[in-house]
Amino acid sequence: MKNLTAALLLFFVAFCARIVIAQENADEAMIKEVINKAYIEGIQNQGNIEDIRNGFHPGFDLLMMRNNSLSKLPIYTWLETIERRKAENPSGPAAKTSVKFLMIDITGNAAVAKIELHREEKLIFTDYLSLYRFEEGWKIVSKIYYQH
User: Which of 35, 66, 101, 124 is the most exposed place for a label (fewest CB within 10 A)?
Assistant: First the structure.
């Protein structure tokens, strides 16, 4: 009887672990999709504005450090810039930006993604994106970066 109880307990633990891993894999896939659709294709490659709005939280801030000073760029200001660029050049940038995912770390409803942005096979930025999972899905809430 002890062996049966131990076997059932081991099976239950393994089953629960598989559920947790499956959820983490699903969350990672959703995070990558949000980053690709809203940030890479949306902002970097001047894609669909609605995709940007859906992937970024309205309270998003891009934090920039220049000359030892920190400044913020809210998403609504960044969107105005993208909309202006799209109006000036509807076909988008000649050289598209691609992404390489270096790390995604998820804890509950919070996540951080470290990504590299490449243009014409040249590394241009390393970005650190913070995300939260809301009822409607994962949203990018902040960004810091290093320009290469």
Answer: 66
3-state secondary structure the chain: CHHHHHHHHHHHHHHHHHHHHHHHHHHHHHHHHHHHHHHHHHHHCCCCHHHHHHHEEEEEEEEEEECCEEEEEEHHHHHHHHHHHHHHCCCCCCCCEEEEEEEEEEECCEEEEEEEEEECCEEEEEEEEEEEEECCEEEEEEEEEEEC
Return mean pLDDT, the chain.
89
Q: What percent of the chain has pLDDT over 90?
A: 76
Closest C-alpha among 55, 104, 101 to residue 82: 55
Q: Which CATH architecture has domain 2-147?
A: Roll (3.10)
pLDDT digits (tens, 9 = 90+) for 7-27: 555 555 555 455 555 656 899
For the chain, the domains span 2-147
